[in-house]
Amino acid sequence: MASGHIDLANTHSKDADYELVAIAMSHAAARYNAFMVSQSLTPEQIATDRDKHIDHLAGQFREFLIQHYDGYVQEKTGV
């Protein structure tokens, strides 16, 4: 699934700046993640555990970003 989203982003990058495409993808991911949490919890749990869920999702994103960022560093620098 991730490759499909990346393919779509690459298509958009033909007509828009990479940064704009990245912002749009981040916005879409945040929106979908909030929706996903809202579907799996009660309204009380959503409100009470807000920071816990946001911290968990942000932590996942951070791990993905570190992995891929370091991959590009290694590719570009050989380090």
From TrEMBL:
Pfam family name, one: DUF3144
Protein name: DUF3144 domain-containing protein
Source organism of the structure: Asticcacaulis endophyticus
Highest classification ranks of the organism: Bacteria, Pseudomonadati, Pseudomonadota, Alphaproteobacteria, Caulobacterales
